[in-house]
Write a structure and sequence with these properties.
By secondary structure, the protein is of the alpha+beta class. It contains 17 helices and 22 strands. Helix 4 packs antiparallel against helix 5 and helix 11 packs antiparallel against helix 13. Belongs to the FGGY kinase family.
Length: 521
């Protein structure tokens, strides 16, 4: 590359310095954060800025690409300044990004044709539903089952079970190419990309249109078995492969990683059976499945965790989209003023007074997979207080955790070796303890919650030799808070204690009533 912008050029001038650092940026759904890490993985400087979400129509969720780029540049400069260092002391730049959020832009000018379409966007819900019910999909499922029976290739079994989701890029991109006439897909000048591709294109001044395996595998258009874009899927829904990033690369001194995979790496979940739960805007539960992708029947998604050298590590993931969203919604309603109050509020009452909350502002994901479900509060009474409402909301987070965990156990049949929990919502002791009780397992919460940033820093640091081995990274982990199940009987088997059986049953009944709510009559 003949020309780099200032940030990249300064990273390369890395000759004479007193001490070196790793710079890491996490581009999340609600904020962009940058940290400067030293050799002990301690944060030496930080800067953050908010991401402004745009809601032009009901169900549409967007971000301005230029605002995102300006925010990225500002937090990098701010973190370096806050650390009191100079840019030439930075050995590498790690970048983790939210997944499934994309835009398209002009290859020649770099100007976006439209805003980023967020992973939370529901504009393609009807399209997804019609495709999942179509005769074409039934025929594909049938044909793939026959081929799997003959060949026993797991990728054919995966194809026989594939169900489209609004969280995957596929049909949101189909919607864009159908409705936005300004996107010139036939002229060879259109670039499609998730946030990592867009940032890389900007950082290299248009020289590179590329992505990494972890982000590519999260789009729904990537074949994790063949490690390439799926020609079959793209032709099935009429997506031109010419607009996709041509190469999947790890660039020297700059590494990109999808946020949940980065969090998994930051948690040092390097072994098969390691589980990571990130509770942020949404909940993402990932299990390390080793060197083979997992084939799911209930909505767990096979992902590339990371590819370092020749090693490829796969994950299976389930998610609930509205964890932090529900808590912020409750705060806007002034159920509490400070989120740190919520755990004490939940503990101040013995139960939720029969109130059930269904956290599905963006539909329901695995194992129910209903994009038309609504968020709801049921069982309200004159005796219901704010504390009861807060407890019901926090309980719903743990209940969805239990659903995902049971699905993961049932589907993967992999013995769980450890469970580590991070993300902003993990700071809530009530949610953590209830999750441990419902799992019947010990769960650990690191003192450092921003694991996506740390994971991207770890990968970048390993790439340039800042850290040498993964064992060295494990030793850098700070002391954890541990939550052990407090069961009524002394043996915890993973089933809830008697206290929560009727509460769970009521909540599951509320869940069923919330499903298919937005379906057109």
């Amino acid at each position: 590359i003949s020309e780099y912008p200032t940030i990249i050029r300064l990273i390369h001038r890395n000759g004479f310095k007193k001490e070196s650092y790793i710079l890491s940026v996490d581009v999340g759904t609600t904020s962009i954060r940058c940290h400067v890490y030293d050799k002990e993985a301690k944060i030496r400087g930080s800067c953050s800025t908010k991401v402004v979400l745009l809601y032009p129509e009901v169900g549409h969720v967007e971000m301005d690409p230029d605002d995102l780029w300006k925010g990225f540049i500002s937090v990098v400069k701010g973190a370096v300044q806050d650390a009191g260092i100079q840019m030439h002391q930075v050995e590498a730049l790690g970048i983790s990004t939210q997944r499934g959020t994309f835009t398209t832009w002009d290859r020649r000018t770099g100007v976006p044709f439209h805003n980023f379409i967020s992973w939370q966007d529901q504009r393609a819900a009807d399209l997804v539903k019609s495709w999942n019910r179509s005769c074409t999909m039934k025929a594909i499922h049938g044909a793939m089952k026959v081929l799997y029976f003959v060949t026993r290739q797991k990728r054919l079994l995966a194809a026989s079970l594939v169900v489209f989701s609004t969280q995957h890029v596929t049909f949101r991109l189909v919607w864009v190419l159908t409705h936005y006439t300004q996107v010139p897909i036939d002229e060879g000048n259109c670039c499609f990309g998730t946030i990592d591709s867009w940032l890389l294109f900007k950082l290299t001044k248009g020289h590179l249109h590329a992505t990494d395996y972890s982000n590519a595998s999260s789009t729904g258009i990537f074949d994790s078995y063949q490690m390439c874009w799926s020609g079959f899927l793209s032709s099935l829904v009429s997506l031109p492969l010419s607009i996709f990033p041509k190469s999947l690369i790890l660039i020297n001194m700059i590494t990109f990683m999808a946020d949940q995979q980065a969090a998994m790496f930051g948690e040092c979940c390097f072994d098969v059976g390691d589980v990571k739960i990130t509770m942020g805007t949404g909940t993402f539960m990932d299990i390390n499945t080793g060197s083979k992708p997992h084939t799911s029947v209930a909505g767990l998604y096979p992902l590339v965790g990371w590819k370092i050298g020749s090693e490829v590590v796969y994950l299976a993931e389930g998610n609930a989209a509205d964890t932090g969203t529900a808590i912020k919604w409750a705060q806007k309603l002034e159920l509490f003023s400070d989120v740190r109050e919520t755990s004490a509020m939940a503990y101040s009452v013995s139960d939720s007074d029969g109130v059930c909350f269904v956290p599905s502002f963006s539909g329901l994901q695995a194992p129910l997979n209903d994009p038309k479900a609504c968020a709801s509060l049921m069982g309200l009474k004159p005796s219901t207080t704010k504390s009861h409402l807060v407890r019901a909301i926090l309980e719903s987070v743990a209940f969805r955790n239990k659903q995902l965990y049971e699905t993961m156990l049932r589907e993967t049949r992999i013995p769980i070796t450890k469970i580590r929990v991070d993300g902003g919502v993990s700071s809530n002791d009530f949610v953590m303890q209830l999750t441990s009780d419902l799992f019947g397992k010990k769960i650990s919460r690191p003192q450092h919650h921003e694991m996506s940033c740390l994971g991207a820093a770890f990968v970048a640091g390993l790439e340039v030799g800042f850290w040498r081995t993964r064992e060295e990274l494990k030793k850098l982990q700070s002391a954890d808070d541990e939550f052990s199940p407090q069961c009524a009987d002394k043996e915890c088997t993973g089933s809830p204690n008697g206290e929560y059986v009727p509460i769970l049953q009521s909540w599951e009944r509320a869940l069923r009533r919330s499903m298919n709510w937005y379906n057109k009559p």
